[in-house]
Amino acid sequence: MTGRTPSGQRSSRRQGRTPSGPAATAYDIEKGEHVPVSGDRLWGVEEVSDFLGVPVSTLYVWRHRRIGPQGRKIGRHLRYRPQDVRAWVEEQE
User: Fold this and answer.
1) In this structure, what is the dihedral angle of CA atoms 81, 86, 90, 92, given to the nearest 10 degrees?
2) DSSP for 7-57?
3) Distance CA 63, CA 1 (A)
4) CA–CA separation, 27 and 31 (whole Å)
5) 1: which residues sit within 8 A by CB, 6+ positions away?
């Protein structure tokens, strides 16, 4: 796949990323089809950054100061539960 539309324009679709919206799906090998993904998917720092409208670096500063939404390390990656981020936002109001 070249990442270009039939007219030669670059495609705006990001490759290799899992959709995170309500229509997110995953491929079920046993069923041989795409199935809806549950809301249990963890968010990465980029997704939390987009959701909160702050730079990624701010999330790392907040984590260091223990003032931001609770995150957890999964291997070497920082992940957030969406419900924790939303609860943290509610606490700020």
Assistant:
1) 70
2) TSPBP-PPTT----STT-EEEETTTTEEEEPPTTPPEEHHHHHHHHT--HH
3) 39
4) 8
5) 15
Q: State pLDDT tens for residues 29-57.
A: 667 776 655 667 899 999 999 999 999 99
Handedness of CA 3, 6, 10, 12 (dihedral sign): negative
Q: Which amino acid is at 77?
A: H
Tokens of 23: 């229509």
C-alpha of 41 from chain center:
8
CA distance 93 to 87: 10
**pTM score, two decimals?**
0.59
Q: Which residue has the tokens 């670096």?
A: 57
Q: How many CA within 13 A on the CB side of residue 30?
A: 0
Query: Amino acid letter at 56?
Result: V
The answer to whether the beta carbons of residues 74 and 42 sit under 8 Å apart is yes
